[in-house]
Design a protein that fits this description.
- The protein contains 9 helices and 13 strands.
- The protein has 329 residues and is an alpha+beta fold.
- The strands form 2 sheets. Strands 1, 2, 3, 4, 5, 6, 7, 8, 9, 10 and 11 form an 11-stranded mixed sheet that branches.
- It is globular.
- The chain starts with a helix and ends in a 16-residue tail after the last strand.
Length: 329
């Protein structure tokens, strides 16, 4: 395989459907996207791994939803990693890439050397769908469950959306021919076609957290179990690549399930912050309010937590009492 063929699937999401089992899915490969996200912050390794996993989940979930604007994933916890937030911006035009950004907040002195998820305590996993101006955002929340963020995402879909869902992910630092280590990630998402089980109310479950198998019965449960057993055979290097293209991976895993692929979606690192947005967010404040935000140097500053952009503004030009900014007509 040539280098060009290897790289063609980096930073893409490939949708597919298994016609024999009524299951849809996505295969994602992230490379440059993770580099763009992680280089903005000097995260400890445990936090890097959690952000990488969350970004991969965001790419897989975001592509399943026909977005006009933004899908956000959030983890809030009482543990050392207090929050992880990601955004997926759907392409504005046909053929354009989607954009992903992510960041985490954490208490460095509370981090442990255990598994990354050990640094997340009691909390919740949330999905927010924002369809843009004049549209009420949708938000769904479920408790965090271990041992991974992907397990929490599976529990979210079972409990909040009644959609049996499975994630098989692999991610980590990779060293290739040039000797420079960089992050790569790959994964598969499986989801049963939307249809709530008529037996769902009677499903025993475990505690208050539903499992995907609680939502299925009969042939549907048999199909789901069979496809998941096939997915269990996948190897980490097959997920991350780049030697095995996603369409070859689907054939290896699910050839008897009649896989059918659709158009791939490119994804890129991207942030929507701008000076105009900063000014807009400050437009609700009076001159007196702005004065309390002014630094000793007589400036109003703001930093984007996602991309690290720094904005330095004249306090006289922000707020609803603002004078015109330089260059304004």
């Amino acid at each position: 395989m040539t280098l060009g063929n290897q790289l063609v699937w980096d930073d893409t999401v490939l949708p597919f459907q298994l016609d024999a089992s009524d299951i849809r899915g996505r295969v994602a490969r992230l490379d440059g996207v993770l580099g763009g996200i992680l280089k903005q912050h000097d995260y400890p390794p445990q936090v890097e791994a959690l952000v990488a996993e969350m970004a991969l989940l965001t790419a897989l979930i975001g592509q399943t939803i026909k977005l006009r604007w933004k899908l956000s994933l959030q983890v809030q916890s009482k543990g050392p990693v207090r929050m992880i937030a990601t955004d997926y911006y759907g392409p504005s035009e046909e053929g354009e890439p989607a954009r992903i950004r992510a960041y985490a907040s954490y208490d460095a002195d509370r981090l442990t050397d255990g598994a990354p998820f050990d640094n997340i305590g009691e909390g919740y996993f949330a999905i927010i769908i924002d369809q843009g101006q004049d549209m009420a955002p949708y938000q769904g929340i479920s408790p965090l469950v271990g041992p991974t963020l992907s397990a929490s995402a599976e529990a979210y879909f079972a409990q909040s959306e009644q959609l049996p869902t499975r994630f098989q992910l692999s991610f980590g630092e990779s060293t290739e021919g040039n000797g420079e280590p960089h992050w790569r990630a790959g994964g598969v998402m499986l989801q049963h076609m939307p249809e709530a089980s008529p037996l769902m109310a009677k499903a025993p479950g475990e505690g208050d957290i539903l499992k995907p198998t609680d939502l299925l019965h009969g042939d549907k449960q048999e199909n789901w179990n069979r496809v998941n057993i096939l997915l269990d055979t996948v190897e980490e290097l097959e997920l991350i690549g780049p030697q095995v293209p996603p369409n070859d991976l689907l054939t290896r895993l699910f050839h008897e399930e009649l896989p059918r692929v659709f158009d791939p979606q490119a994804v890129r690192f991207g942030c929507t912050c701008s000076e105009e947005r900063v000014r807009q967010s400050l437009s609700i404040y009076s001159a007196r309010d702005i004065e309390t935000m002014t630094t000793d140097d007589g400036r109003v500053t703001a930093d984007c937590q996602f991309c690290g952009a720094h904005y330095d503004l004249d306090p006289k030009t922000v707020g609803f009492d603002a004078e015109k900014a330089p260059g304004d007509d």
